[in-house]
Each structure stands twice: as C-alpha cells, then as structure tokens.
Fold this sequence. Notes:
Helices cover about 30% and strands about 15% of the residues. It is α/β, with parallel strands linked by helices. The strands form four sheets. It has an eight-stranded parallel beta barrel, surrounded by four helices. A two-stranded antiparallel ribbon has the order 1-2. Helix 3 (about 150-170) packs parallel to helix 6 (about 210-225). InterPro entries: Aldolase_TIM, OxRdtase_FMN_N, Oye-like. Pfam families: Oxidored_FMN.
Amino acid sequence: MSKLFTPYNMASIHLKNRVVMAPMTRTRTLNDVADELVALYYAQRASAGLLITEGLPVSEEGRGYLYTPGLYNEAQMQGWRKVTDAVHAKGGRIFAQLWHVGRMSHVSLLPGNQAPVSSGIIPATNTTVFAFTESGEPGAVTPSEPRALETEEVGRITEDFVKSALLAIEAGFDGVEVMAANGFIFDQFLSSQLNTRTDRYGGTVENRQRFLMETIDAISMAIGEDKVAVRLSPFGRIYDLAPYDNEEETWASIASALGQRKLAYVHLYYQPNYNAAPKEADSFKSSFRNVFDGTIIAAGGFNRSIAEEALEKGEVDLVAFGVPYIANPDLVERMQNDWPLAESDRTTYYGISSSPEKGYTDYPAYQLE
C-alpha cells in the first residue's frame, strides 16, 4: 500500500492518512469571523489526514491582509466552532494556524492607523499586502514602515498568542500551529539583518530566537505541548526576507531548541519547493531529522510521486499540499485513484465578491463517467 495513504499517530492524535492540507490565505470573511461558507470549505476537504487553517491573526495589530478571519474574540471563536464541528463530523482533524504579520502590514488595517510593529524599523519594500489603497479601495499596497517593539511589548504579543490558543481549544480545534515562517514577525526577530536590537531579544542567535521559543513554551503551558506545533521556512526568501549573517548557525540553533521540546509536529516549508531548495535548506532536511525525533511535516510544491519518495526516504512523516487543494476538495481520493486533478482559477484565490463561493466552495469532487 502507498505510504501516503496509511494512518499515522501524531502525538495523541490519530490521522487517517499522511496527507495534510497546507494553510492558505483565502480572504473570504467580510467581518473577520468564519461563517458557514468557511465551514463548508474546510469540511469539503476533510478527507485529508490533517487540515491546517489559513493564518488567523491573534490580534488586530497582527493583521496584515483584509478579510482574514481572526481568533482573538468571542465572536471569532464561535465562528471557528462551526468549522471544527463540520470537519469533525466528516472524521477530520484540524489545527488553527496562529499568525502575527509584524512589519508585513499597512496603517490602513491597524487601529488608529498606527505603524506595524517588528523587531526593528526596516520596512518590507519588495512586496505588497492586501489593504486599502489611497483611494480607499481594497488592493495591493506596499507595507508601511514599522516601529521597533519595546522590550516589554514582546511579552504582550506572546500573551496574545496564548489567548488565541486558548480560544482555539475552546472552539474545538485539535491543536494550534504557530506561524513562524514566510518573513512574518518571528522571522523578523530571527534575522540578524532585520533585528538590530541590543536587548535580550537581539544580538546573539539565542537572543534572536528567544521570542519564538518563549511563545511556544507559553502556549504549551496553557494547552499542552502535544497540541502545539510550529511552521518554519528555513532560508526562506519571500516577502522581502533577505540572507543574513549567521543564518546557518541560526537554523542549527533553532533545530536544537525544538529537539528539546515534544511538540505535536514541526512544519517545514521549503522554497521555492522541496526538490529545488537552496543547498543550505537542503542540508537542513537531514540535520533537522537527526535532532528532532517528533513528527515532521514538509511543504513545498509536492505532488504524489515526490511525496511518496520523501516518505519512503524517511525524511518526513506527513506531506502538506497547498494549491492542489484549492480546486480539488477530494485531493486524497484523486491521488489514491490516479484521477486527474482539476486546475484552479488564480483570479479567484483572494478577495470578497458578489459570489464569495466562486473559486472557493464551488469546485466539485471528481465524477466517474
């Protein structure tokens, strides 16, 4: 039998297969609260062994994109309960990805038009966020210049993650994934190029990773280590994240620190994809497996054959698929039966329209002729 479709025990959670639906921002909630349409979207894809939600801002300050459903108040918690109930009714498992974008935001999204916060004051310039343009219309804009968090403020953001994690458990999620990949706030602290701090959160590798590890540990204390996961993008370059001094040492140190923790899983997103990652990231695959004996999820341009190869080599335990899940809610069944995959319409990936279900919940399951 194909290993991809065999059951797997992840910490205390039984998964019916090793296929994971990767987190994907879809910007479909006008009031930032998950609704019945969001519940349908995830329930349609519940044949995956594990679903990971789109990034859920842990506070208003943590938001970087319009129409993204948050998880920091009662209404949002109740909205996500609809989603978890729908997924569990289909026999699925689902983790909430908790998100703070840091400098990847715009003043038009933030309370009082305040500046985004980050490890320092270097703005992200070669990228965009989905916010309000000068004309007041939704659109792509360059992120605003951030301000550096004061030392005492860092702990406040950790507290926001803990509160969001507690709401996630109350909403019925099986666990939470800390979004520490893709150039968002934790990556901004890890980078010696962006983080020029002189306090306990800057300078040495240990100081730069302190914020992430303190947050992971605080959430673990609140909900249990076996319900906590983290997503990383080793040597990632998206959203204006540049190479920095001591980068290899930084990732080796993070690997060692995570190896001392018994998390639900570590989710590694390789860029541009798993088979074409830069040599530094490629060597990280084996070194991380050597120091972390828990569940490893890998993401980055996988298809069935590449997934099977990675599983057989023992490099990973579970494989995450992103874009293929947009147009193929029954992706597991299609791969298992060698049915053709549908192509998704990129123009409907993001945004609110008069037909929010278009390109979201209207992709059908495969029909045998």
